[in-house]
Model the fold of this input.
Amino acid sequence: MKTIFNYNKFNNETQDTLVESFIALSNSFMAGKGHTAEYQEANKQFNEDFMKECVAAMPNGKFSSVEDLKNPMIHKNVFFLSQFDTILAQMITPVVPTVVASGYENLYDVTQVGWGDNAKYFVESNEMFIVNDAAMGIARGGVQTMYDTEYTVQAHKKEVAAYVDWYHVAAGKMDWGRFGVKVGLAYAAYIEGKVVKAMASCITAPVAKAQGISGYIANGFTDSNWLTVARNVSLANGSSDVYALGTKLALGDILPKESATSQFRYDENSAIVKTGYLPAYKGVPMVELGNALVPNTINGTPEVIVDDKTIFMIPMGMYKPVKVVFEGNTLTVEKNPLEMADHTYCMNVNMMVGVDVVVGSKFGAITLA
Done:
């Protein structure tokens, strides 16, 4: 499981068990076990335990079965709903990072700040110290600093609106694992989209010039462009190792000239058949960047978030170019009274998140034809 942030313990055994059960359900659903008898039974038991704990928050609340949820005296009770919101927020919180597509951890750093705070980043100067002549009567060069500047990234409120049908819950038909994954996927796709948009804007001509990376971008894949960009990125970052990051379709285009493919001697063909791309090219390891569909295009013409025509060259062990900031360490769930029907509960699942580019280390890019 990838970790972006952890949920807070309730220090209540029943409620902490509910959170852990919800995570287990979500993981099982992502593993394709949503239609198994074991999953269905676990979901049914979780549904009953969750509702029982929410009813227990009511003064003199007594729970007999999930059928109780059909009673508006229960599902409209303020104590019941408050408990529902609090526990649900803690349950969804750790699910979000588990559905972020692979490869993105190579592009961004994650920072958590307290409620109301901004994230501050100190960036070292990437200029080499200059050796000056020193002799009696000769003025020395300027004083050189380790740190160049600082940046701040502010989180903003984002939300997913969803609803629960109490009759559906009462019938034991609410699939909580699917619900958690869908909310997680929504936020994961949003974060991935923001990261990719930030990177894409950074390599456009005016922004690249302002960020000082225009000399590290090449148009078109050739061996010369590949080796030159990799070399420049490496040297600009203290001769660090460099790896190429792109989608499977983009990496799949990185191949020797057709006349050279017949000379593969180290089982490269099987690697291509197995993963769709070479593990490395000209000494540069290649790492796949996962993709996702743009929301609202799933039922029409599918559009992907990540362009298949760009490969990024990233230095290892240096500053990652994108910063993702979470304010607070939990999502929050709040009632949306304007969208509630008689037997449904509409809620906003809120997250405070900010995404921005901070180019502390030079990176490069190759745009494919």
Remarks:
- Confidence is low (pLDDT under 50) at residues 1-6.
- The radius of gyration is 26 Å.
- Residues 176-202 form the longest helix (27 residues).
- The chain has eleven helices and 13 strands.
